[in-house]
Write a structure and sequence with these properties.
This protein has about 150 residues and is of the alpha+beta class. The protein has four helices and three strands, in the order H-E-H-E-E-H-H. The longest helix is centred in the C-terminal third of the chain and has 19 residues. The termini are far apart.
Length: about 150
């Protein structure tokens, strides 16, 4: 049993409006992570997902799509690692107070997650990472040839 003072905060209230941040949808990076299984919290088909998205990338994409976004320092319950890289929860306002969608392109949480999966790979930070990784792997492959076992 919980104390009566904490109960109203945890319960859904019909008095809350769609503009209240408590009514906004929550999206964790694990929902669109291609490295996760369904049991680990992935919610979108693996082919459409993004490899290790961060809450900063998600926020940047949603702000660019002119949605109202809030970032919370929360850890997804199914996430095993407690590192800062995996922390973060995004809250997005989808509806006006009358219940109509704010943006016709995003009527549901699935549409928001699909938009994230499409746009995160196009971010400049993602494109720089993929270009930066290629030259680093080639020179390191040639360093292995040398003297041999060395001193024992």
């Amino acid at each position: 049993m919980q104390s009566s003072s904490a109960a109203p905060i945890l319960q859904w209230s019909p008095d809350k409006k769609h503009t209240d941040p408590e009514r906004w949808i929550c999206i964790y990076p694990a929902y669109i992570n291609s490295k996760k299984t369904l049991a680990q919290g992935r919610r979108i088909a693996k082919e459409k997902c993004v490899e290790n998205p961060t809450h900063q990338e998600m926020r940047d994409v949603l702000v660019a799509a002119s949605l109202k976004v809030g970032v919370e320092n929360k850890l997804y319950s199914r996430e095993r690692s407690k590192e800062l890289l995996y922390r973060g929860r995004i809250r997005v306002q989808l509806k006006n107070n009358d219940g109509t969608p704010i943006n016709k392109d995003f009527p549901s949480r699935e549409s928001v997650m699909m938009h994230l999966c499409e746009m995160i790979p196009k971010l400049k930070t993602r494109q720089n990472k993929s270009l930066g990784d290629q030259p680093q792997t080639n020179p390191s492959g040639g360093k292995g040839k040398g003297k041999g076992k060395g001193r024992r």
